[in-house]
Design brief:
Structural class: alpha/beta
Order of helices and strands: EHEEHEHHEHEEHEEEHEEHEEHH
CATH class of the largest domain: Alpha Beta
Distance between the termini: 35 Å
Largest sheet: 7 strands, parallel
Shape: globular
Bound molecules: uridine-5'-diphosphate-4-deoxy-4-fluoro-alpha-D-galactose
Number of strands: 14
Number of domains: 2
Number of helices: 10
């Protein structure tokens, strides 16, 4: 069985569905602090907390787990600045407990949900995996610490592990069953679509004076369905013994879109439905680098992964179907 921690969250819920459809037995473990029970639609369900070692012991005793895909974490940059201890407790201490439980149960394979936030402000573009790790907020630092915990456990405990550093996850389940529902929502695409539906008064562009072609920040958006596909490839390679020790891959497409491009593409796509998107401009958001784009060749070469749905139109269309259904 494959244990998906945080499987009631945005990416974890898509992962559980993907694995279920690919024929893997799955157990979803989530404390529902930010996840939604309604998103955990596939596999066995266990409500539990990484900060409660007994929950983990119970989970590993109850299910014959072969590998772990570890998503469970707090993931809001602003919140992490206000509540750093929550981030270190939940993300770092939780991962420590998970690694203990894996050691006790003899489970040797883990895939970790990391982030481009471990790099901090880019010193080179596109950003390769070897870029210095200088996270600029507690969220990014907690993810970097989690990577280091896992890497040390690999050498000492004979684990095999893959960390996947996501750039900007976007879009929704192509079948429309799952999607993004953060509370509060901070991500650009869902906020643009909420403004389109009148759930918010407007989308605010945070800064138009960046050193980019149109003055707004550029990000490397990757469809959540492409993202989870890469995890399955990593899982196959780990279980087959083709990936050994500790490996790290960026998960992005290598192509960036600006905030204005995202908004204009959404406007164009929704015009046919008679929907318009109110836009306003605001100040820069603290801590936003001008450009974050992945050097994405490693995951393609080593795992044979290719993005299939990560063009902007498809990501927005799928997110739009989900957002409309949430009315
Ligand atoms: N943006 C706006 N208006 C909004 C929301 C966002 O203009 O209302 C802009 C941001 O300034 C940024 C871009 O849209 O330039 C994308 O912002 P998101 O919040 O969607 O995503 P981020 O690039 O800030 O965050 C992503 C991941 C985080 C990770 C971070 C690393 O979602 O988990 O990259 O820097 F920490």
């Amino acid at each position: 069985m494959i244990l998906v921690t945080g499987g009631a969250g945005y990416i974890g819920s898509h992962m559980a569905k993907w694995l279920h459809q690919a024929g893997y037995p799955v157990v979803v473990f989530d404390n529902l602090s930010t996840g939604k029970r309604s998103l955990a639609r596939y596999g066995e369900w266990m409500e539990g907390d990484l900060n409660n070692p007994d929950d983990l012991t119970h989970c590993f005793e109850r299910f014959p787990i072969r590998a772990v895909i570890h998503f469970a974490a707090r993931s809001l940059v602003g919140e992490s600045v206000r509540m750093p201890l929550l981030y270190y407790q939940n993300n770092v201490a939780g991962t420590l407990n998970l690694l203990h439980a894996m050691a006790d149960a003899g489970v040797k394979h883990i895939i970790f949900s990391s982030t481009a936030a471990v790099y901090g402000n880019p010193q080179q573009l596109p950003i390769p995996e070897t870029h210095p790790k200088q996270p600029i907020n507690p969220y990014g630092r907690s993810k970097w610490m989690m990577e280091q915990l896992i890497e040390d456990a690999v050498s000492a405990m004979g684990l095999h592990a893959v960390s996947l550093r996501y750039f900007n996850a976007a879009g929704a389940d192509p079948a429309g069953e799952l999607g993004e529902c953060h509370d509060p929502e901070t991500h650009l695409i869902p906020l643009v679509l909420k403004a389109a539906l009148g759930k918010r008064s407007a989308i605010t562009i945070f800064g138009q004076d960046y050193p980019t072609p149109d003055g707004t920040p550029v990000r490397d958006y990757i469809h959540v369905w492409d993202l989870v596909a890469a995890h399955e490839l990593a899982l196959q390679a780990l279980l087959a013994g083709e990936l050994q020790g500790y490996q790290v891959f960026n998960l992005g497409t290598g192509k960036g879109y600006s905030v204005k491009e995202v908004i204009h593409t959404a406007q164009r796509l929704l015009e046919s439905e008679g929907v318009s998107i109110p836009v306003q401009t605001g100040a820069r958001r603290v801590g936003d680098p001008p450009v974050l784009v992945a050097k994405a060749d490693q995951v393609q070469q080593v795992l044979g992964w290719m993005p299939r749905l990560s063009d902007l139109e498809t990501m927005i269309q799928h997110a739009w179907c989900w957002e409309k259904a949430q009315r």
